Amino acid sequence: MPHPQKRNEDEAAPPPREVRRAVRTAVASCRSARWRNAAIVAICVLAMHGLGCEKLLTTKPDPGGRFDTPLPGLGNGELGDFQAGHTQFRKAFSIAQGLGPIFNNVSCASCHSGDGRGRPENILTRFSRGTDLAMDVGGPQIQSRAIPGAEPERLPAGADVSYRMPPPVFGVGLIEAITDSSILAHEDPSDANADGISGRANMVTPAPYVPATEPGGGAGPRVGRFGRKAQVSSLLQQTVEAYHQDIGMTSSYRPTENSNPLAAHPASDPAQDPELSDREVEVVMQYMRMLAPPEPGAASASRTRGATLFSSTQCSRCHVPTLHTGTHEIETLANRDVTLYSDLLLHDLGDALADNRPDGSADGREWRTAPLWGLRVAREFLNGQLFLLHDGRARSVDQAIRLHGGEATAAHDAYLAMPASDQAALVDFVESR
Amino acid sequence: MRARAFGAAVLAALLAAGAPSCVLGAALPRPGATEPSLTSPYHGTLEGLAFGGHGELRFAEDREAGVSNPDWFSVGRVNGFVFARVSPRIDLGLAGSWDRAVDHFVMERMEAAFRVRRFTQAHAGIFLVPLGSTNLDHDAPGYDFAERSLVATQLIGVPHAQLGAGVRNLARAGPASQLLWEVDLVTGYDDGIITESPGGTRIPSGRNNYGDKNGMPAVAWRVAVRSRGKELGLAAQSGQYNRTQEGGVRVDDPRWAHVLVADGRTAWAGFRLFSEAAYASIDVPPGLRDLFAQHQWGASVEAVRTLLDPLFGGWRGSAVTAGIRADAVDFDRSVQGDSRMRLSASLNLHSRPLAVTRFGWYYEIRRDRFNNSTPLAGLTLTAATYF
Questions:
Q1: Which of A74, A122, B245, B379 is the most exposed place for a label (fewest CB within 10 A)?
Q2: If you count residue pairs, one on A and one on B, with CB atoms under 8 Å apart, how many are there?
Q3: What residues of chain B lie within 8 A of the CB of A114, using their CB?
């Protein structure tokens, strides 16, 4: 019995003579190098057309899955500042432009990966002697790198040390716009409700160069909200100090170079101070103000379950889902809810996380509640890894929860007592924020 | 779109204007037969003097992560040269270029050459350092891609010319083989490798076109074997790049930069193949280590095929070629990331032997030091011609 395929071929009618002749002619033509080459060109052009220009010329990433997306509702002028700041944030400084003489990195973007968290190799070393910032020996931060001719700083013996991972910079405009009353409403310094959680604001004095017109500026104690211990109240101060301490760039706000007081001889970079114009500082500050937090992931049964557990285990007592903004010069920041999952207050997180180094009024066991927003896409900008907590020691949300103690002991114990499926649902919810 | 259409029209008009001079250039003999590096045609001659140049225009849709770059119409390269044979043994050469790859003017040649023997030449002045074949010959109309390779532009820093003196020689190495060698003492790189390069070590930032910065010359050399259209070359430049004293005060130890380049070309199965690879080793001051790279490398491979020659029966001198190139540069071997990888394709119409219109495409993955990738791509239309 013939093979069915073979039988079908046998039964097929032979092509007409004209077709066979045309095919023979075409084959003969293709044997000529000239036409073969022309055919290659035609195939290439058709293939490019078939693939489409969009795929050949890259496509835009999902704006909700990035850390460098502007807030919706910004005006043209604001977006112009945003773009200028975006460029400035990524600008890597050379020694000729003022980098150093001692520094930690060469640009803002060199520490904040994709405007998000940093990696352990970018970790900053803060040190002090009790409440003394140890300026005489290079405090309060080690600049571990130096330009030729300068000496990098080394950690002095006997100092109180704290390692700090670079935090995300998106959403800081919203944090700045949150009203003091919205933050202070969650304070319970004496644990009056006896739930074991006693958050308090870190009341700090802004740097003298921060004018009263700036949010968080002016005389008198202000609610600290930036930094791992909420030790800074003003975004201007945060920006100026990062340029000065981390990159070694002077500005009119901090016009004197940061140098190593223990170096054998003084050193400076070749650029004239101030190395940054006020405009450059301003556009970076405005850029960070206008950065939108990433959108949370899609809802699912697991995440709904996780949200319920997040609340029932009292995680949400400190990781407060929503705070509220007040008035702000940037309209889109004003009078809105901010879903950051933090109360921006200081909490004792126990011995395991204590750095035993005071920072402002925060003691060595207290930390500002870390916002959880943006965790959904954090891995994408960290080579698939996650570095959580102030020193990046936790490589997963599960590890981070397990390291909580102090005021979070009840939540920690509740998490450990859960079945594995509930733990997974809770982690899934947190990682979808 | 209207503006881009205007740009395309201007490009076409300029190409058309360049074509007649190419015919003239093609018909004239080339100067400097003893100089392996000087292959440019010229269109003007006076007694003992040749002059000319070439230019390239670039019309492109470049995108980074889906966002168009507004730099859609630009000059790719402009070059001018004058060459004089003042006696049977003495040549003078002057050439300068503005190159988009480095975004500034480079004096490529201001050189006096003395013919010691028939194929041996001593030379001094500013000249192209023999660091790979691309650096020695990078005229825009003679190339089949819109952009030079990443190795050439990002690692070697083509065009790379320095002040110095040396000897070059062409010798017979067999019945159909030639051995070319050149040894030079040049001013060498300066500390711009570190101080002028934001974001990490970049060799091109310290090329130092005009003069010495640290009192220490560098050695540059290249040895190449040519045989029946094939060529294999090896080249290097080594020297101290930093200043050790400022105002009489010692501020740093001597630090060296070494760049090693290998290149080769051959023909295979109807393709013209060319490859160039480079490795750089830089002694970085201790205070900058782990942020400024000490080891870099890169490589490129390209294949070009002539598809139609001539394009039509009556259009003498015309040809259509197509090329594909893959290239990569790792700016810091010690980290994952800080690298660029690119794939380029080009379809080229050589309307005259010395003018080319290229339709190209490239796709590049750029990685930062966090290893975050950013895709870049572009469609380019470039026209280059001698004049």
A1: B245
A2: 114
A3: 370, 372
